[in-house]
Specification:
This protein is mainly α. The chain is 70% helix and 0% strand. The radius of gyration is 21 Å and the shape is globular. It starts with a helix and ends with a helix.
Length: 302
């Protein structure tokens, strides 16, 4: 009997490789079904966070209602107060002691950011993800750094709200986060990092889009997270500017530790050119905003 190419390929694989291939097939099959049904939600997502996201997405939401929902969870309320008293978001330095004042001061996008920070803290402390701790920590550190850079870049550019940009930066990796938490069900897949990264690259954008839509995020944020790597995206309007800010922040993130990368990476970047940013202006921006970046990262829970 002749042996087909597929049979030969399967037989040439080690048991570990065959296990990873099977896990990858099952994983992608499940992801596809969940996306088709829009059944995408982070595991262990706190009920209070769902309530906050729902309230903040309502057209005529009042600050008083937000205060009531957030005040029901002391840890979340503390996160909001911490952000409201950060040097970046409270440049006057007057101490804010009441949640009501903090809610009024921050605005809804910053409150969403505080809620995402709270959710991530809960997720990182969940016992079922102990084996993923260092990966969760690394992903969150990256998200917080990008969020902080989005804040200072958008303020420099002056075309979009800085809190909105910060929120986009904070949630840009939620698709990767979802895939990471789901990987605990498929240890063979996670053991094959090349295959795992291939799945992340192919799927995280679509997953992020559904997650953010389910959370009631603004369309500009959803589109920016989903399309910031697409050079063919539209180049006009607030949503396009937000996507450019996010792309620049992601490009600047590794330059914080490796400044020699700044010129080669920012110079040819179309998003930076559209925002009228040069390697020199970005270098100056990062130097001038060093303390503010540190304060933002601390406030967001890094």
């Amino acid at each position: 009997m002749a042996v087909t190419d597929n049979q030969a390929s399967a037989e040439s694989k080690t048991p570990t490789q065959r296990d990873a291939s099977t896990a990858a097939f099952e994983f992608v099959r499940d992801l596809s079904a969940e996306l088709s049904a829009s059944k995408i939600e982070l595991p262990s997502y706190p009920e209070v966070a769902s309530q906050v996201q729902k309230v903040l997405s309502e057209e005529n939401c009042s600050s008083e209602r937000v205060v009531r929902v957030m005040g029901a969870e002391p840890v979340l309320a503390t996160r909001v107060l911490t952000m409201a008293n950060s040097a970046a978001l409270n440049p006057g330095g007057k101490q804010i002691m009441e949640l009501r004042t903090a809610v009024t001061r921050l605005g809804f996008d910053a409150l969403r950011a505080a809620t995402v920070s709270f959710v991530m803290a809960q997720l990182r402390s969940a016992g079922q993800y102990k084996s993923l701790q260092r990966y969760l920590d690394a992903l969150w550190q990256q998200s917080v750094l990008v969020a902080s850079l989005c804040f200072v870049v958008s303020r420099r550019v002056g075309k979009i709200n800085s809190d909105t940009a910060m929120l986009a930066g904070l949630v840009h990796g939620v698709g990767k986060l979802y895939i990471l938490t789901r990987s605990v069900r498929h240890p063979a897949l996670f053991a094959d990092q090349e295959m795992y990264q291939h799945i992340v690259n192919d799927w995280h954008g679509s997953i992020a889009k559904v997650l953010l839509e389910n959370w009631g995020m603004a369309e500009d944020i959803v589109n920016a997270v989903h399309s910031h790597t697409d050079d063919s995206r539209q180049t006009r309007g607030p949503g396009a500017v937000l996507a450019d800010v996010l792309e620049v922040a992601l490009t600047l993130a590794p330059c914080k530790q490796l400044p020699e990368l700044l010129g080669p990476r920012i110079g040819p970047l179309k998003a930076a050119a559209r925002l009228e940013l040069t390697p020199e202006s970005c270098e100056a921006l990062m130097a001038e905003s060093a303390e503010e970046l540190a304060a933002l990262r601390s406030a967001l829970g890094q």
